[in-house]
Write a structure and sequence with these properties.
The complex is a heterodimer of chains A (240) and B (486). Chain A is an alpha/beta fold. Chain A contains nine helices and ten strands. Chain B has three domains: 227 residues, MetI-like (MetI-like fold, Orthogonal Bundle), CATH 1.10.3720; 131 residues, Periplasmic binding protein-like II (D-Maltodextrin-Binding Protein, domain 2, 3-Layer(aba) Sandwich), CATH 3.40.190; 89 residues, Periplasmic binding protein-like II (D-Maltodextrin-Binding Protein, domain 2), CATH 3.40.190. The chains are: A alpha/beta (240), B alpha/beta (486). The complex binds adenosine-5'-triphosphate and magnesium ion.
């Protein structure tokens, strides 16, 4: 579904991604892990061109992603994204946050969009919050709204960039629960995370990045039980 | 956007467009007895030559006006009068905004370089007006300060006195009303004022006394016309006729004759009873000022938003343009911009914009420079994540700007914007210079008509203050509305 070919990205003189190639299958749940600064976020953001690669290609559903504005928009509609810091629209209610893009971008009727949004809020356990403004919500609630917002566009893939890292510990679980049920729904997910337990339990595959290189690409069972590289071993020793 | 906001916007738009199509300038009666019309420029703060009897109406009247009417009528023209600041008269003549100027104007060499004068239609002599009973002749002025109107014949007269009497200091002021006010407050001892004008002040102010300066240079008053105007010859013929048949003398008698002797009772320093009947005249300026301020603010805001987008956009030439624009409009005085735009536009484009349009243009263009900086700052202060979240959802750039970024930016910059709008409201008083009949200009006219200086200005001050307070309250309400989401 997504082909990443020889992806390079540098910021000035800083080579952050040094040639990463990977393939992501339809319906797969992929966990991206690695030390801080290894380039995980950059890798993820290159997939939907929030960062424009220095060289290399992203091929989505057989078609190369480029910076061409209209084409890029069309691709982004189909790729959802959830950020570490939520980035909800603070001047819109929860319901407006969720319905805005479907109405504006997908030209869905308002009534349909609202109905769909309510279903999603039900799903993430926030049915009673539709008229709240984001600033009145807890971190966990915000992140669940952000997930609902991404889902409202009915994307084929969702990219998660450390969705629980900014949350107080007691709220991590409620977000992970939502993501777990999503994983079982068959949608493709790429998740940058430090939650090793979650990766082990939910992911179909683990990508381990270090120093801008893809060091390991393995199943969670394999990776967590017997990492091949020394770097992965050292990393796991530290975090587990 | 909410339905109610759209409604509000629509109402606003309708109001503004209806304002734009109502006539702004007070054109004193061009009602058509004749087929053609002459436009006379004057500065209606010089009684009894030209002033407004603000207790009764908004019409400019006086000695000059009567003479102009008579001449225009005899030549087969209607007369239309345009009032403006005295300093704006010659530029207006230059830019063909008026056909001729009558404003108690004296021909002098400097003026003659730019414009032509008719023959002199009236000669006045000079008087010393003083606040001290002990000053009865020119010699008594030793060691005193005497005031004159800057650049006037009287200034020369004062210099002559200074060369004859020891220790005379000369204080130059812009207007005769300023001179009288300084006399009353004791900041100067005497002033040189033309007799016809002085008589009026002496009538109204029992504290002042005066005497004619012996052998003073007679001020000749003449009509100013554009260089090589075809009208000059015709005007001269009419002046000659009117001198011969006694018309000018008759009109002079009507305006310059001393009237009832002022009562001797002491007058309070501040006394509103005198100008009370003129308050409605000043209040009418609110409409002009409001129209002016509202249109300028909206124009400035829209243009400012556009400029802000140029500044943050990726197109380099647009960014350079917007930066240069801002630096020019912030780096030069507003009053200079106003006068340049008002007088240069007709010369460059051949299209005579009205004082109102020139004012709106200047204030709008100027305000846009400040607004664009405020908005640019506001946009940059919006969290980068908002943009990324929008992009990730596939939201087009324009919709993202209008509905995600700008609303958040506006909320943050509302206090600064409000501040800019308040400044604009107060500074709008500057348009009085080009003769828009706004609150300030009307206050000046009342002050000239009533021989009361402070009171009309205080009334104008109160009106401006109330307007600013209303604006402040509206701003607070808007702020509260926008902070629902906090
Ligand atoms: N916009 C940018 N401009 C310049 N340098 C950047 C930018 N974004 C990231 N970098 C640099 O790229 C490197 C990798 O950053 P990235 O955020 O991809 O790492 P990460 O693996 O996600 O780390 P973390 O686990 O801390 O989030 C870092 O050295 C960072 O400083
Ligand atoms: Mg990261």
């Amino acid at each position: 579904m997504i082909d990443i070919e020889k992806l390079h990205k540098s910021f000035g003189k800083n080579d952050v991604l040094k040639g990463i190639s990977a393939h992501i299958e339809q319906g797969e749940v992929v966990a991206v892990i690695g030390p801080s600064g290894s380039g995980k976020s950059t890798f993820l953001r290159c997939i939907n061109f929030l960062e424009v690669p220095t060289s290399g290609r992203i091929v989505y559903q057989g078609e190369e992603v480029t910076a061409h504005a209209a084409k890029l928009q069309a691709v982004r509609k189909r790729i959802g994204m959830v950020f570490q810091h939520f980035h909800l629209f603070p001047h819109m209610t929860v319901l407006e946050n969720i319905t805005y893009a479907p109405i504006t971008v997908n030209k869905v009727g308002k009534a349909t969009a609202v109905q769909k949004a309510r279903e999603l809020l039900q799903k993430v356990g926030l049915a009673d919050k539709e008229n709240e403004y984001p600033n009145r919500l807890s971190g966990g609630q915000k992140q669940r709204v952000a997930i609902a917002r991404a889902l409202a566009m009915e994307p084929e893939v969702i990219l998660f960039d450390e969705p629980t890292s900014a949350l107080d510990p007691e709220m991590v679980k409620e977000v992970l629960e939502v993501m777990k049920s999503l994983a079982h729904s068959g949608i493709t997910m790429v998740i940058v995370t430090h939650e090793m337990g979650f990766a082990k339990e939910v992911a179909d595959r683990v990508l381990f990045l270090d120093g801008g290189l893809l060091v390991e690409d393995a199943s969670p069972a394999q990776f967590f039980a017997a990492p091949k590289s020394e770097r992965a071993q050292a990393f796991l020793e530290k975090v587990l | 956007m909410k339905k109610s906001s759209w409604l509000l916007l629509t109402i606003l738009m309708v109001t503004i467009s209806s304002m734009l199509f109502t006539p702004f300038q007070q054109h004193a009666a061009a009602q058509g007895k004749h087929a053609k019309t002459l436009v006379m420029g004057t500065s209606a703060d010089y009684a009894p030559y030209e002033f407004v009897d603000t207790k009764k109406s908004s019409d400019v009247i006086g000695f000059d006006v009567d003479i102009a009417r008579k001449i225009a009528d005899r030549l087969g023209y209607n007369l239309e009068i345009k009032d403006m600041d005295f300093n704006g008269l010659i530029p207006a003549l230059d830019a063909n905004r008026v056909d001729f100027v009558m404003a108690g104007m004296t021909p002098n060499a400097e003026r003659k370089k730019k414009i032509d004068f008719s023959s002199v239609y009236y000669k006045a002599s000079q008087m010393i007006v003083t606040n001290q009973k002990s000053i009865k002749k020119v010699k008594d002025l030793q060691g005193k300060t005497i005031g004159v109107q800057l650049g006037s014949i009287q200034e020369k007269e004062a210099k002559k006195i200074a060369s004859q009497v020891n220790d005379v200091a000369i204080d130059k002021q812009n207007k005769v009303t300023d001179l009288v006010e300084q006399l009353k407050s004791g900041r100067m001892d005497a002033a040189v004022i033309e007799d016809g004008v002085a008589v009026e002040y002496l009538n109204k102010n029992p504290d002042l006394s005066g005497f004619k300066i012996p052998h003073s240079d007679a001020t000749g008053t003449a009509i100013a016309l554009p260089k090589n105007s075809a009208l000059t010859e015709k005007f001269n013929e009419q002046i000659a006729t009117m001198k011969k048949n006694g018309d000018i003398e008759k009109i002079a008698k009507k305006w310059f004759e001393p009237k009832k002797k002022a009562s001797d009772e002491k007058r309070a320093i501040i006394d509103f009873s005198e100008i009370f009947p003129s308050v409605p005249f000043i209040l009418k300026g609110i409409v002009t000022t409001l129209q002016f301020v509202v249109v300028s603010i909206i124009f400035g805001f829209l243009l400012g938003t556009l400029l802000a987008l140029c500044k943050i956009g990726g197109v380099k030439p647009l960014r350079w343009f917007a930066d240069a624009y801002t630096s020019i409009f912030r780096g030069t005085p507003l009053i200079l911009q106003l006068i340049v735009i008002y007088n240069a536009t007709p010369q460059v484009t051949g299209y005579k914009i009205s004082a109102f349009v020139a004012g709106v243009l200047t204030f709008g263009l100027n305000s846009a420079a400040y607004v664009s900086e405020i908005i640019r700052g506001g946009i940059n202060a919006v969290d980068k994540g908002q943009r990324e979240a929008s992009m990730a959802l596939g939201i087009p750039k324009s919709a993202m700007m209008r509905q995600i970024i700008l609303p958040q930016a506006l909320k943050n910059i509302l206090p600064s914007l409000m501040n800019e709008f308040i400044t604009l409201t107060k500074e709008s008083a500057i348009v009085a210079v080009i003769g828009t009949m706004d609150i300030m200009r009307r206050a000046q006219i009342v002050s000239a008509d009533s021989y009361r200086y402070l009171e009309p200005l205080l009334v104008a001050g109160v009106i401006y203050y109330v307007m600013v307070m209303i604006l402040t309250v509206l701003g607070r309400m808007l702020e509260r509305r926008m902070s629902r989401s906090d």
